[in-house]
Amino acid sequence: METHQFTIIIERQPEGEYLVSVPALPGCYTQGGTLEEARQMAADAIRAYCASLLKHGEPIPVESFEEQFVGRVSVTLEPS
Question: Please, is 38 exposed, middle or buried when counting C-beta atoms within 10 Å of its C-beta (0-12, 13-18, 19+)?
């Protein structure tokens, strides 16, 4: 077995659920009722996504950490 690492983005929704996306795996989304559940669901979704890739003879993407940035940006907006 090989271990792969993927960046996940977890966003709390207004309803309280946590939405998870995996940027390296287009269309790979899941959610959880708690932060911990969202992490567990992300791991399950990633495993299923990668299993499908392998089943279809496609490679598992490797993230390039030099090409991504997760952070905050301050923007000044004109008043309306």
Answer: buried
